[in-house]
Amino acid sequence: MKITIFGLSITSAWGNGHATTYRALTRALHDRGHDIVFFEHNAEWYASNRDLPDPEFCQVHIYENWKDILPQARRVLRESVLAIVGSYFPHGREAANEVFSSQAVSAFYDIDTPITVAQLRQGDAPYLKREQVPEFDLYLSFTGGPMLQTLEADFGAQRAVPLYCSFDREDCPKGPAPEASACDLSYMGTYAGDRQQKLEELFCAPARALPQSKFMLAGAQYPHSVTWPKNVARTIHLSPREHGAFYRSSNLTLNLTRGEMLRSGYSPSVRLFEAAGYGAAVVSDRWTGLETFFTPEKEILVADCTQDVINYLKGYDRMELQQIGRAAQERVLAEHSAEHRASQLENYVQLARSSRVTKNKAATLTKEMVM
């Protein structure tokens, strides 16, 4: 089937997890025989950092002005079976209306569900009007659990279903982990104010307590006011092709959850599945629903405070951590691969199309009875 996606970015992973998500999903869909067209606004910070300007698995249209690209978008939509509008797409409201006017199955892909819902409770999100939620055939959510019922009961979503991020099997590492840049604890993440306290507690504080250990942080936009321990090596940005080496050279890597996602629970991050997919041993902050994705102590370690991280670093040897990493990798490849997500999406679309047929038959029957 032909699929149209209006998304934040697929060409640049700079400071966002959307690109990684879209790449894995669209590549898997392409491998399953689907034709994907992706519309992306030409944002300056992405234009300057395009690490995948021309993906071979989908056709990308980068535009400056929404009105200029609109005729082309309408032509593509006329041929599409599925049309997706993603969260934080700059012209999401306008794109949604165009999707509703087409015959395609319509889906909103919310990679930021708790943030979107918080904004909708106050009125509208910049990329989605509250009144548009019930118009979508599918509400694809990065957050599962009770949030799905909230989307249907409070906002009128027709069918709210989870479509979490995933790991691309093609990136699965082969051979031993690199040793050149080995560190004891790593963290990858762009600066976020609602994560910074946890970063201080679960990363910086352990680094200060263990001055002989090596720590590595990859992430942009940290303010100059942040004081880093001397044993923390920093890099501003890593392209996705460098992520595997980063994670695999760490004895342990840290996963931290944004504030709204933490409060909602059931919100695994892109980095969580990615790190586990590469076979890294992950220590995560605690959130509701974590155990539905990974088994604590067997596939993931959970930290509530600084001392927990220190205990893991001092109490587990490299072989024990590698065993945890391998168990997590097996779980990801079995349940959270890009192929698995593509298959889920196909099933959701089929359900939506069947629901449309049922509704049309019911409407026709009602009309005939009235006549």
Throw out a few tags for this protein:
371 residues, alpha/beta, Rossmann fold, 2 domains, 6-stranded parallel β-sheet, globular
Polypeptide structure, described:
- With 371 residues, the chain is of the alpha/beta class.
- It folds into 2 domains: 2-166 and 337-364, Rossmann fold (3-Layer(aba) Sandwich), CATH 3.40.50.2000; 169-334, Glycogen Phosphorylase B (Rossmann fold, 3-Layer(aba) Sandwich).
- The protein contains 13 helices and 13 strands.
- It has helices at residues 18-31, 44-47, 66-78, 92-101, 113-122, 146-155, 193-209, 240-248, 259-264, 270-277, 306-315, 318-335, 338-370; strands spanning 2-6, 35-41, 59-63, 82-86, 105-110, 138-141, 160-162, 183-188, 215-218, 232-235, 250-255, 282-285, 301-303.
- The strands form 2 sheets. A 7-stranded parallel beta sheet has the order 3-2-1-4-5-6-7, with helices on both faces. It has a 6-stranded parallel beta sheet with strand order 10-9-8-11-12-13, sandwiched between helices.
- It is globular and about 60 Å long.
- It starts with a strand and ends with a helix.
- The model has no long low-confidence stretch (mean pLDDT 93).
